[in-house]
From TrEMBL:
Organism in which the protein naturally occurs: Fodinicola feengrottensis
Keyword flag NADP: no
Signal sequence annotation: none
Protein name: Cytochrome P450
CDD domains in the cross-refs: CYP107-like
UniProt superkingdom: Bacteria
Record keyword NAD present: no
Record InterPro entries: Cyt_P450 (IPR001128), Cyt_P450_B (IPR002397), Cyt_P450_sf (IPR036396)
Gene3D superfamilies assigned: Cytochrome P450
Record family assignment: Belongs to the cytochrome P450 family.
Pfam families with a match to the protein in the record: p450 (PF00067)
Keyword terms: Heme, Iron, Metal-binding, Monooxygenase, Oxidoreductase
Length: 393
């Protein structure tokens, strides 16, 4: 892990120990409270006084994201019940465990094809060659995004995930969001005209007691699934591979005991998961917590990464232990907004990491590993992963 990342993590760990519910004023200017301990984080994630509804907290939402995201963000992750319940129920009709399980052989095939295409004896950046292409291909195939639209979606979503704090980035983001919105409207129209055996076609048809998704809801739901469905998984894969390469004892253990891949994936999410913070939340009243009072109208930023290393909850929290059991981390959230794609992400990670190290047990790092900086506040993780697949130790 780089020194910048280490000092950032140490700073947050000190906040957790000294001022666990901590007021800060980020560059967007909206008063914000950091929640850094496990028990507090878990409680806040299910506290009905803390809202995720962008419409009821419009000024905070706009300070954070601007105007242009609204059409795309009007979806379940920015809603409270009953709107949230309704949207989540409708998507659950189409995004079933059976559909995810059916993707397993195809995910294995894509994994093998991507690894086959990498020259085994020259250094390669796994972020470009493997950790991003795999989840992008899987989520696009699942949704039914035609191959010729995929590169654009990936480019735009990377831009949207970037910083919101300087004028140039905001302009770029707005342009990307407008183009993305336009393209998604076309995609939904295309699926109406030419239905396929895919999730988007099923979402168009999904009904619940006569209720169905509107055109605008279909567009923002598709955006949420596309975005959440690849950035997070891609970052998890990069961080997990890096964690194994920098903890050779754990890598040897996984190679010797491949059945540990299930607990290993949970541990990767706990140890260095891609979501440093939970998403947008606003206090709807004054909320006493620990020694503080979170003031009505302020943002609540739940620092999942710090909660996941809270020594009050985890034994040896700073150690990577791929056999860890009872690993109730918060890396995929908790409560009604618990990650909708959790089983898909787990399946992809198990196949990707398991296959990579089964085929290339002597994989080694081949250069410096940079990490995302503050310009990328939504995610934590490696931004490049130079490796040699066939190096022998
Ligand atoms: C390792 C990969 C992933 C991680 C670490 C992750 C993490 C999270 C977290 C922390 C939340 C809760 C946010 C909050 O309460 O503020 C969440 C929600 C969500 N995730 Fe994931 N996610 C991953 C993969 C995926 C995938 C593959 C999909 C879709 C195919 C997905 C779709 C969603 C959706 C739609 C929500 C919102 C659910 C709701 O509001 O009810 N995620 N995810």
């Amino acid at each position: 892990m780089t020194t910048t990342q280490q000092s950032h993590d140490q700073e947050l760990a000190q906040i957790r120990e000294n001022t666990p519910v901590c007021p800060v004023t980020p560059p967007h200017g909206v008063p914000t409270w950091l929640v850094t301990r496990y028990d507090h984080a878990r409680a806040v994630l299910v506290d009905p006084r803390i809202s995720k509804d962008m419409h009821s907290a419009m000024s905070a939402y706009q300070a954070l994201f601007g105007d242009s995201s609204m059409a795309l963000d009007d979806n379940m992750i920015f809603s409270d019940g009953p709107k949230h319940t309704r949207l989540r129920r409708l998507v659950a009709k189409a995004f079933t465990p059976r559909r995810v399980e059916a993707l397993r052989p195809r995910t294995q095939q894509i994994t093998d094809q991507l690894l086959d295409a990498i020259g085994p004896y020259a250094p390669v950046n796994l972020v470009e060659a493997f950790t991003f292409p795999l989840p992008i291909t899987v989520i696009c195939e699942l949704l039914g995004v035609p191959a010729d639209m995929r590169a654009d979606f990936q480019r735009w979503s990377t831009t949207v995930a970037g910083t919101v704090y300087d004028d140039d980035s905001v302009r770029l983001q707005q342009a990307a969001e407008e183009q993305m919105h336009h393209q998604l409207v076309e995609l939904v129209a295309l699926k109406r005209k030419e239905p396929g055996d895919d999730l988007l076609t099923d979402l168009i048809a999904a009904r619940d007691d006569g209720d169905r998704l509107s055109e605008a809801e279909l567009v923002s739901m598709t955006w949420l699934l596309l975005f959440a469905g690849h950035e997070t998984t891609a970052r998890l894969l990069g961080n997990a591979i890096h964690a194994l390469l920098t903890h050779p004892d754990q890598l040897r253990r996984l190679v010797a005991e491949p059945h540990l891949i299930g607990t290993a994936v949970e541990e990767f999410i706990r140890f260095d998961g891609p979501a440093e913070n939970a998403t947008f939340r606003v206090a709807t009243e004054d909320i006493p917590l620990a020694d503080a009072v979170i003031e009505k109208g302020s943002l609540v930023q739940i620092v999942l990464a710090t909660a996941n290393r809270d020594p009050r909850h985890f034994d040896r929290p700073e150690d990577l232990d791929i056999g860890r059991t009872d690993n109730h981390h918060l890396g995929m959230g908790h409560g009604i907004h618990y990650c909708l794609g959790a089983s898909l992400a787990r399946m992809e990670a198990e196949i990707a990491i398991g296959t990579l190290f089964r085929r290339f047990p002597h994989l080694t790092l081949a250069g410096e590993v940079p990490r995302l900086g503050p310009e990328n506040p939504a995610f934590r993780g490696v931004s490049a992963l130079p490796v040699l697949l066939h190096a022998r130790t």
